[in-house]
Amino acid sequence: MDIVRVGICGLGTVGGGTLQVLQESSSEISARTRTQVQVVHIGARREKPDYDLSGIRISQDIFEVANDPDVDVLVETIGGIEPAKSLVLQAIANGKDVVTANKALIAEHGNELLEAAEKAGVTLSFEAAVAGAIPVIRALRDGLSGNQIKELAGIINGTGNFILTEMRDHGRAYEDVLQEAQELGYAEADPTFDVEGIDAAHKLCILASIAYGIPLAFDEVYTEGISKIQKSDVLFAEELGYRIKHLGIAKRTDKGIEVRVHPTLIPEEVLLSKVEGVMNAVWIDGDASGPTLYYGAGAGALPTASSIVSDIVEIARSRQAGFAVSVPPLGVDLANQKNLPVLPIGECKTAFFMHITAANKSGVMLAITKVLTEAGVSIDAMIQKEAEPGSNHVPIALVTSVALESVLNSAVEKIEALEEIVKPLVRFRVEALEA
């Protein structure tokens, strides 16, 4: 039986999980690939007694793995940009196939890395870079390859989804839930990547590239976090029949592609709205398939390792058959990618939720409605609460019709300039995500 020899760089949570899955599922993998997949070399700063490392070469210098002639497939799980980028390029230059879970590396430097892999005749695979255990890249790239993708929307960061779930279910403040998320290990000490949408933007960049056949363009992804969401916003959304989710959205339009990450109100009857806690889900609407939903664990040692091993299995099958992996990593050959523009956020169209705090006097709604009407925006739903005891301020929540973002922003400025408005209003986008 042929042998595919694997080198793993990084023996942390994901690298250790990958080693565990490869060892515990070796017979299953052999049956599926007709090869033996063996870990022969690990690059790690220190050995981990939790794992069986017998018969495996251990190096503190990860580049020794990339330069090891006995390694056929290098698995990169160290994360970050450098030295991960240099490591991957070195492995590619040495004729090795590479598997990575590094969404930042692929989103920000994937065009360069994929071009290098194509020239070298090797494979760069990254199923684990998006949504952990969910095989959404393969589903989008292969299973839905006969479709024109109209739209996709995903809960692709578990930390943000955990925070919003706790705020809704238990009426907790954002800061309180964030602290718990850090204590539970869902959020880092510096949670910026998670709560400000950068992590989700990396993943959405990859999904949008595959969905629409465009080059990776992380710098063009509009990104907005969840740190400004208050308990009152969540409660108003519920009363209006919506739930707030932190979504990555990519949508085809006549003018180009929308690629944006931001808090979004979605109808409570939509399946995506029911994804709770740290779980991930991606909703994809194809012209032939119609809407499909992919759900599962978006992070963790074994869920992420599951996707890494699926890439190794694909490579092993191709090697056993005597040819390179035939499916381009982004779904189309680099030479055939489309030059579709990514629209700036001001040119995107959605409905909007507004949370307004106004003086408790007559004529307030008339003034707000007048501004919106002049902008060509109608009000689809509205709630006005009574003033709190001892306060002369009334909270108002409304949902508008679909409008161009730049038009809505101008209307918001005019509303905030009204003398009846006592502080800046809060506004979030609304998506129907119709089944």
Task: Using brief descriptors, characterize the structure shown.
six-stranded parallel sheet; Alpha-Beta Plaits; 435 residues; alpha/beta; Dihydrodipicolinate Reductase, domain 2; elongated; eleven-stranded mixed sheet; Rossmann fold
Topology, please?
Blueprint: E1 2-9, H1 13-24, H2 26-33, E2 35-43, E3 57-59, H3 63-66, E4 73-76, H4 84-93, E5 97-100, H5 103-120, E6 124-125, H6 136-143, E7 149-155, H7 158-170, H8 174-183, H9 192-195, H10 198-212, E8 222-223, H11 231-239, E9 242-252, E10 257-267, E11 279-286, E12 290-297, H12 301-321, E13 349-359, H13 364-374, E14 379-384, E15 393-400, E16 403-404, H14 405-416, E17 426-430
Parallel strand pairs: 1-2, 1-4, 2-3, 4-5, 5-6, 8-10, 10-17
Antiparallel strand pairs: 7-9, 7-11, 9-10, 11-12, 13-15, 13-16, 13-17, 14-15
Helix pairs in contact: 1-12, 4-5, 5-10, 7-8, 13-14
Description:
By secondary structure, this protein is of the alpha/beta class. It has 14 helices and 17 strands. It folds into three domains: 168 residues, 3-Layer(aba) Sandwich (Rossmann fold), CATH 3.40.50; 162 residues, 2-Layer Sandwich (Dihydrodipicolinate Reductase, domain 2), CATH 3.30.360; 84 residues, 2-Layer Sandwich (Alpha-Beta Plaits), CATH 3.30.70. Helices cover 36% and strands 25% of the residues. The strands form two sheets. Strands 7, 8, 9, 10, 11, 12, 13, 14, 15, 16 and 17 form an eleven-stranded mixed sheet that branches. The longest helix is centred in the C-terminal third of the chain and has 21 residues. It is elongated and about 80 Å long. The mean pLDDT is 94.
